[in-house]
Design a protein that fits this description.
This protein is an alpha+beta fold. The protein is 30% helix and 27% strand. The chain is built from six helices and nine strands, in the order E-E-H-E-H-E-H-E-E-E-E-H-E-H-H. The strands form two sheets. It has a five-stranded antiparallel sheet. Strands 1-2-3-4 form a four-stranded mixed sheet. Strand 3, helix 2 and strand 4 form a beta-alpha-beta unit. The longest helix has 16 residues.
């Protein structure tokens, strides 16, 4: 693991092991906090740290962080922006708690499930399903499922990614 500082305000963390990165952010910066007596001013980390658990930890610590998530660069590509299967290209109807695909089909909420990651972090996912995709001309581009389209969504992670995207596209984020 490597931790670097710049003017005692920006801290970078890098690990050669990908297996521990999800839990590593909390462990590493807990050690930095203990050693320095304070939390770093700005945390910069690569895409391997852009997971829901790490974002939740950074929010709990009220950290200023610039942490990319795995699809950040892909989202700006034309192929991503025109891929109708991507949830990012759909509309969320908050009032009715439903997702609307590019063809206008509504995927309604069915149930919620809580799962635990290997590190013990709880993720809450909401499950949605369309009522019928059989006659949709875009179905082959949207899903490989034989039946209707189903999606699992962590609304917390979507919000965290939105925050990260705003930070990354800000003047400060862009400068880093």
């Amino acid at each position: 693991m490597q931790i670097g500082t710049e003017n005692q305000t920006h801290h970078r963390i890098k690990s050669s092991s990908t297996s521990n990165r999800q839990a590593l952010l909390e462990t590493a910066f807990g050690k930095v906090d203990a050693a320095l007596g304070q939390f770093p001013g700005t945390i910069i980390a690569d895409t391997e740290y852009g997971r829901e658990k790490n974002y939740a930890y950074l929010n709990e610590e009220a950290c200023n962080a610039v942490v990319k998530y795995s699809t950040y660069h892909k989202e700006n590509s034309k192929s991503w922006q025109t891929d109708i299967s991507k949830l990012d290209n759909w509309t969320y109807d908050e009032k009715n708690d439903a997702w609307i695909c590019v063809e206008g089909q509504k995927l309604t909420f069915r149930y919620e499930r809580k799962t635990m990651t290997e590190s013990g972090f709880e993720i809450q996912t909401r499950h949605y399903r369309s009522s019928t995709c059989d006659s949709c001309p875009l179905k082959p581009k949207c899903t490989k499922a034989k039946g209707d389209r189903e999606i699992q969504v962590s609304m917390n992670y979507i919000g965290m990614k939105r925050q990260a995207r705003e930070q990354l596209k800000s003047e400060d984020g862009y400068a880093l």
